[in-house]
TrEMBL record:
<protein>
    <submittedName>
        <fullName>Short-chain dehydrogenase</fullName>
    </submittedName>
</protein>
<keyword id="KW-0560">Oxidoreductase</keyword>
<dbReference type="InterPro" id="IPR036291">
    <property type="entry name" value="NAD(P)-bd_dom_sf"/>
</dbReference>
<dbReference type="Pfam" id="PF00106">
    <property type="entry name" value="adh_short"/>
</dbReference>
<dbReference type="InterPro" id="IPR002347">
    <property type="entry name" value="SDR_fam"/>
</dbReference>
Length: 301
């Protein structure tokens, strides 16, 4: 099934885990893949793995560090200089529960990378998305958004930092952004779609033990109770390609607790339903990144 022939897809963090598995599927379906990677050596190794099993795969690697807005701007300019359209933007990359640290621009690392970096990237690539009929933006959230809240008085963590709490905040921000982006697409009459998804609980390299791999026993337990990355990637693929979706949906696994299984429509936690918070997050994100979204032009049919 080559339903993506002639289409261009950007996947952030495509060198491993869910991003890598999604890249393989999109390449098999004929898309031209841009792997947006912080470490280009790892990206090239991942690209070589894809080409080794699919000699016709169209895969390029471009440097993108979501924790550095200068890098985000440079990446977006490079893409716009090389491409006249963009069918799929997969906001996949993420960091999970690091020790307290900051991005190049002084943001708390998880909020800065997981949300603000992708917010800026999407806004800077919006001219291409608007020019491309039926383009889609897919943003990865997480079960960790449940019960989280956006602490506007402590976004940088200087008033206290708990790694998991800030991870949940960043994943709630991803979901709020995806929903608000779709509303603005529709209000502007654009036929682009914004869809959120989550992988359930997937055994990816987000589960690391410092710089070491997980111990063998932990790895065994992970693979018994967590779904493998190729399954975790299915909600991403579904959100990016299913023609029944109309925008604004949240896709996740269909199993118990939405932790494992095949993709289906999921219901966000009530924390994601506050429209005032969603609008305020958008405004704050524009202020912090300096990126304004221009929805004025309509997509080319």
């Amino acid at each position: 099934m080559k339903q993506l022939i002639g289409k261009t897809a950007i996947i952030t963090g495509a060198n491993s885990g869910i991003g890598f598995e999604a890249a393989k599927v999109f390449a098999d379906r004929g898309a031209q893949i841009i792997m947006a990677i912080r470490d280009t050596a790892k990206g090239e190794a991942a690209r070589d793995l894809i080409i080794a099993t699919n000699k016709d795969a169209l895969v390029t690697v471009m440097k993108l560090d979501l924790a550095d807005l200068a890098s985000v701007r440079a990446f977006a300019e490079n893409v716009k200089n090389q491409h006249s359209s963009l069918d799929l933007l997969i906001n996949n990359a993420g960091v999970m529960t690091p020790p307290y640290s900051k991005t190049e621009d002084g943001f708390e690392l998880q909020f800065g990378s997981n949300h603000l970096g992708h917010f800026a990237l999407t806004g800077l690539l919006l001219p291409l998305l608007k020019k491309t009929a039926d383009s889609r933006v897919v943003s990865l959230s997480s079960l960790a958004h449940k019960g989280a809240r956006i602490d506007f008085d402590n976004l940088d963590g200087t008033k206290g930092y708990k790694a998991m709490k800030f991870y949940g905040q960043s994943k709630l921000a991803n979901l709020l952004f995806a929903q608000e982006l779709d509303k603005r697409f529709k209000q502007s009459g654009l036929n682009s779609l914004s869809i959120a998804c989550h992988p359930g609980i997937s055994a990816t390299n987000l589960f690391k033990f410092g710089k070491r791999d997980a111990p063998k026993l932990i790895k065994s337990l992970m693979h018994n109770f967590l779904q493998p990355p190729e399954m975790g990637a299915l909600p991403t693929v579904y959100a990016a390609t299913d023609l029944r979706l109309t925008g604004g949906e949240y896709i996740g696994p269909d199993g118990k607790g939405q932790r494992k299984g095949y993709p289906t429509l999921d219901t966000p936690h009530a924390a994601a339903g506050d429209e005032a918070v969603s609008r305020k997050l958008w405004e704050v994100s524009e202020q912090l990144t300096g990126v304004k979204f221009d929805f004025t032009e309509t997509a080319t049919q």
